[in-house]
Amino acid sequence: MSERRVRRTIAVLDGVGTVMSAGQSVTDVRYHLNVSQESVIVRNPSGTREMPGAREVHGTLMPPPGQTLPMSGVPLTLLMEDGGEIDFAVTSMSAGEYQIASSGELRDAQQTL
What we know:
Layout: E1 2-21, E2 24-44, E3 47-62, E4 76-79, E5 84-94, E6 97-102, E7 107-108, H1 109-112
Antiparallel strand pairs: 1-2, 1-4, 2-3, 3-6, 4-5, 5-6, 5-7
């Protein structure tokens, strides 16, 4: 039996959204997110099987000039223009662009109400 892991981009999300913290709006942002998913491919004498693994979201947020995001210690959520939302952490900031990461699931905001 052999096992191989593969990570694929399954979605690219671009738009304008709102960063929230503790139920309060922090600022609006432009976002560019890459959603990837790991797959585990198992080969054995009876055949090959592919099983979905963990999803990850990485990307950038760009607030308007003069606006900033908390860099650490504060839980943040991005509300996207399509109604989706995701919890994230800021990993770095450079030239007004914030790098973010999340291993949580994208949620449909309509279902979480």
